[in-house]
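Listing S7. Sequence submitted for prediction.
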Amino acid sequence: MTAVKITAVGNSAGVLLSKDILAKLRVDKGDFLHVVETANGIELTPYDPDFETQMSLAEGIMREDRDILRKLAK
C-alpha cells in the first residue's frame, strides 16, 4: 500500500503519483485518470468505464449483425 499526500495546486488540491505508480497505471503526465466510486471506495483508473460499456454494446451488435456488416463493407 502506498500513501500519497494531498497538496495545494493553485486554488485546488492534488496528489503526486510516483513514477512507479504511473508505470503500474500505464499513464504519464498529461494523461487522464477516471475517478470511479466502488463498494470499496474511490478508484483511479486510466480506463473510461463509459467507453468500455459502449464498446461492449458495439461488439454485441457487430456479432449479431456480422453478415449485414460484411455486405455493407463491400
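Caption to Listing S7: primary sequence and predicted C-alpha cells for the chain studied. The chain has one domain: 6-73. The radius of gyration is 19 Å.
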